[in-house]
């Protein structure tokens, strides 16, 4: 397919757009701002080829221009295969279709016949799936392409594999198999229609048979259970009298054992009380001995602590003497340090005053020099103010003066002249200028209109018809020179040169003064130095300046600092010697010893008081008698408790209680069995009566199940047969498509290497859709690529398809144009440059139409043709 021209009228927002005389090969760039109608061109092309003129769908109605009652119209002049035609379609308000065929045979058609003829041409000579693929819209930039679904590509790839390839797939057989397969299965392989109904009928019959079998089995179970329940009820009624007698006997034995257990418990509590009384008597004897020992220990501790009191007192006195002596020395050292600090503050203040006074003198001198330079700079700036006479101005005046001199000389050599002689002193007027005669003749150039005034007579020279007419070169040169001098406000060339030299010298002097001023300021701002001088003047106004220079004041500071450091070192030495004594270890030790002696005396008083109080309450003999009496009482209680425990062991109350509980449980269970059997038998009688006829229902269900099984087997055999045939066809088709992948991948890789690098490879699906890109950095799925890489790959894939299909065409060109709508917006400059080479190569074998708002992206594409969208909308198309 070759597009020769395309015209849009009243199509969406485009009132009229005409694209004509397109080259048959090469890159065609149509550019313009957004929303100017570039994408509409692609929509209009699709509409004129595929949309019936009578269509009124929502998509067709969207073509109606807003605010105008005009019919959307598209006219296409193109060649498809051997047929060259022009198709014109109107939609909506005045729908019509007109087709004119100009080759290979002429013909004109309208209406439905025109669309039928167009459909015949397109069906026979155009691969529409290839056209849809190569018409790349903005929304398709990130999507993959299933190339195997394009018949032109399939033929190209099949032919590229080997000589034994068939060239096409048996689509009729595949369609018939698919139709038969869809009779039994869905696209996902699930059963449907006849197979599903057969399976459901079998499952329903199987369910009915299982239900009938379960009902029949349930009836047999109810009969068996009725017999077992009857037998269990009779047995329970026979066991009831013996169980009741056993329960009464075991209840009496459990009562006797419980009374023995209760008596033994009372005696055990009496034994516990006797044991506790004995322990209290023995504890009183032990406590009395502890109190006596505490008095002895307190006396020994007090004597031990009083023995070291004298030595501690002597050590504390020596410590106090050392603290007094070192404290006096430290006080003297602190005073010396304070005197040195005061001396240092005085010296530093005098140094600051002397330094500030010196700085004030320096600033005064520096700023005086700066002010002098400022005055000179101001004078030079005044001198250079106004219009600057540049070297270009001098050159222009020199050139105008030279031109005037040359014009005058040329005119003097070529013009007619009139010479006057006469008495010296006589005058005449030429063009208003008075001339005085002398000894030499006066020569006057004559030009058309020259006026001579001699006395009262005026003569005016008129050139003949053969004389040259036009602008006077001399007058023109004079006018140019005069205009330049008036602009510069100077009388002549010498004045211009002098003004230029004066301005240049003044500019150089000004630059030198500015450099000198910058050096004098030393990188500071003049205002900063003025502010600093003002501050120093204010601070030193009321100060008595010392009679010192900066060096003497600096030495005084250093001497004061040395004296302060010496006083500090002496104070540090005294503090170091004083630190151990300031801990007052001897004084603290004496204080602690006195506190411990007082505590020992108090402990002795407390121990003695406690012992005296205990002796006053009971004597040692009374405590011993109490222990003996408590021992006798405990022995008697122990004997009685042991006898009671033996009686309990013989009766075994727990066993007796457990045996009685078992008898009670058995008696209760027998009563429950009788009652539950009576209820179960009543229910089973009802079940048995309701289940009559279960065997007959089971026979009917088994017959229906066997019939459903036969039908399912028959349908399943047919479904499995078509499934096997379909799988076999798909396997062979997959093998064929696997052969297609190699030449397609080779073509895609060949185009992609200049963009993605020489090590790039692609993974293709069985539909020849790119799924992964691999290079030295790894493998990345298509969905994870950047936006720029996706749009580059979308274009490269279509270029690969175009190259493959061009090999199958008779003229070696791509069967349909490649149309790309506003791509490469996310592509970096380097890859954009490389993509341009591929566009150039693609243009060698077919039409490549690019719709873009940034034509600069395609500046490197060779042999391109550019159209501005605004020009295409005008009445005269730029070619």
From TrEMBL:
Domain of life per record: Bacteria
Stretches assigned to the Endonuclease GajA/Old nuclease/RecF-like AAA domain: 1-52
GO biological process: double-strand break repair
Entry GO MF terms: ATP hydrolysis activity
UniProt keywords, alphabetically: Coiled coil
Coiled-coil regions listed: 243-329, 583-647, 684-718
Full protein name: DNA repair ATPase
Stored SUPFAM superfamilies: P-loop containing nucleoside triphosphate hydrolases
Phylogenetic placement of the source organism: Bacteria, Bacillati, Actinomycetota, Actinomycetes, Mycobacteriales
InterPro entries named among the record's database cross-references: AAA_GajA/Old/RecF-like (IPR041685), P-loop_NTPase (IPR027417)
Pfam families in the record: AAA_15
């Amino acid at each position: 397919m070759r597009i020769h021209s395309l015209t849009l009228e009243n199509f969406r927002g485009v009132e009229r757009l005409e694209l004509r005389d397109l080259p048959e090969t090469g890159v065609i760039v149509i550019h313009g701002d957004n929303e100017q109608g570039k994408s509409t061109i692609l929509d209009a092309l699709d509409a004129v080829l595929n949309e019936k003129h009578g269509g009124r769908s929502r998509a067709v109605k969207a073509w109606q221009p807003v605010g105008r009652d005009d019919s959307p119209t598209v006219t296409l002049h193109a060649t498809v295969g051997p047929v060259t035609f022009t198709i014109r379609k109107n939609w909506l308000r005045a729908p019509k279709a007109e087709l004119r065929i100009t080759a290979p045979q002429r013909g004109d058609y309208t209406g439905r016949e025109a669309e039928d003829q167009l459909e015949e041409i397109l069906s026979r000579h155009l691969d529409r799936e290839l056209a849809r693929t190569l018409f790349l819209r903005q929304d398709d930039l990130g999507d993959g392409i299933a190339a195997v679904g394009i018949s032109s590509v399939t033929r190209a790839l099949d032919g590229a594999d080997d000589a034994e390839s068939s060239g096409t797939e048996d689509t009729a057989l595949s369609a018939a198999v698919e139709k038969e397969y869809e009779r039994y299965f869905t696209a996902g392989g699930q059963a449907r229609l006849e197979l599903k109904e057969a399976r459901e009928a079998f499952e329903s019959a199987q369910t009915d048979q299982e239900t009938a079998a379960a009902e029949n089995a349930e009836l047999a179970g109810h009969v068996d259970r009725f017999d077992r329940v009857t037998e269990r009820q009779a047995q329970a009624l026979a066991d009831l009298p013996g169980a009741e007698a056993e329960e009464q006997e075991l209840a009496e034995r459990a009562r006797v054992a419980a009374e023995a257990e209760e008596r033994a418990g009372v005696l055990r509590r009496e034994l516990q009380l006797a044991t506790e009384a004995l322990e209290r008597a023995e504890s009183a004897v032990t406590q009395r001995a502890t109190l006596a020992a505490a008095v002895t220990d307190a006396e020994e501790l007090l004597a031990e602590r009083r023995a070291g009191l004298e030595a501690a007192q002597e050590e504390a006195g020596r410590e106090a003497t050392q603290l007094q002596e070192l404290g006096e020395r430290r006080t003297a050292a602190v005073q010396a340090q304070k005197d040195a600090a005061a001396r240092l503050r005085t010296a530093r203040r005098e140094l600051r005053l002397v330094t500030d006074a010196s700085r004030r003198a320096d600033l005064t001198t520096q700023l005086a020099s700066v002010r002098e330079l400022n005055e000179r700079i101001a004078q030079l700036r005044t001198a250079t103010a106004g219009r600057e006479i540049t070297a270009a101005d001098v050159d222009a005046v020199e050139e105008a003066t030279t031109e005037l001199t040359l014009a005058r000389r040329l005119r003097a050599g070529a013009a007619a002249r009139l010479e006057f002689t006469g008495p010296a002193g006589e005058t005449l007027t030429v063009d208003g200028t008075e001339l005085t005669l002398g000894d030499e003749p006066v020569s006057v150039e004559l030009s058309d209109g020259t006026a001579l005034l001699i006395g009262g007579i005026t003569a005016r020279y008129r050139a003949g018809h053969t004389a040259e007419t036009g602008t006077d070169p001399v007058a023109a040169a004079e006018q140019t020179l005069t205009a330049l001098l008036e602009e510069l406000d100077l009388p002549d060339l010498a004045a211009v040169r002098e003004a230029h030299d004066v301005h240049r010298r003044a500019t150089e002097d000004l630059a030198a003064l500015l450099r000198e001023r910058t050096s004098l300021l030393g990188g500071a701002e003049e205002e900063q130095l003025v502010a600093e001088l003002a501050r120093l003047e204010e601070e030193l106004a009321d100060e008595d300046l010392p009679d010192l220079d900066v060096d003497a004041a600096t030495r005084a500071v250093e001497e004061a600092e040395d004296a302060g450091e010496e006083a500090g070192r002496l104070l540090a030495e005294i503090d170091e010697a004083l630190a151990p004594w300031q801990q007052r270890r001897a004084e603290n030790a004496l204080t602690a010893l006195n506190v411990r002696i007082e505590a020992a005396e108090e402990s002795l008083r407390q121990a003695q008081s406690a012992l005296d109080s205990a002796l006053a309450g009971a004597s040692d003999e009374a405590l011993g008698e109490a222990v003996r009496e408590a021992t006798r009482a405990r022995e008697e209680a122990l004997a009685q408790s042991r006898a009671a425990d033996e009686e309990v062991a013989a009766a075994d109350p727990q066993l007796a209680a457990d045996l009685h509980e078992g008898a009670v449980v058995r008696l209760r269970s027998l009563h429950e069995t009788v009652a539950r059997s009576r209820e179960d038998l009543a229910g089973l009688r009802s079940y048995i009566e309701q289940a009559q006829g279960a065997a007959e229902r089971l026979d009917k269900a088994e017959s229906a199940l066997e019939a459903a099984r036969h039908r399912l087997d028959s349908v399943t055999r047919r479904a499995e047969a078509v499934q096997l045939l379909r799988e076999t066809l798909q396997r062979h088709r997959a093998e064929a498509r696997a052969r297609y992948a190699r030449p397609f991948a080779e073509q895609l890789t060949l185009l992609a290497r200049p963009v993605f690098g020489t090590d790039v490879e692609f993974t293709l699906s069985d539909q020849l859709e790119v799924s992964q890109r691999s290079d030295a950095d790894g493998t990345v799925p298509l969905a994870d690529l950047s936006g720029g890489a996706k749009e580059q790959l979308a274009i490269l894939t279509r270029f690969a398809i175009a190259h493959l299909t061009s090999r199958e065409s008779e003229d070696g060109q791509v069967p349909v144009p490649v149309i790309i709508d506003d791509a490469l917006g996310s592509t970096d400059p380097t890859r954009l440059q490389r993509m341009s080479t591929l566009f150039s190569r693609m243009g060698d074998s077919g039409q490549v139409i690019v719709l873009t708002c940034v034509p600069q992206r395609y500046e490197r594409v060779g042999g391109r043709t550019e159209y501005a969208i605004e020009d295409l909308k005008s009445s005269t198309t730029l070619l």
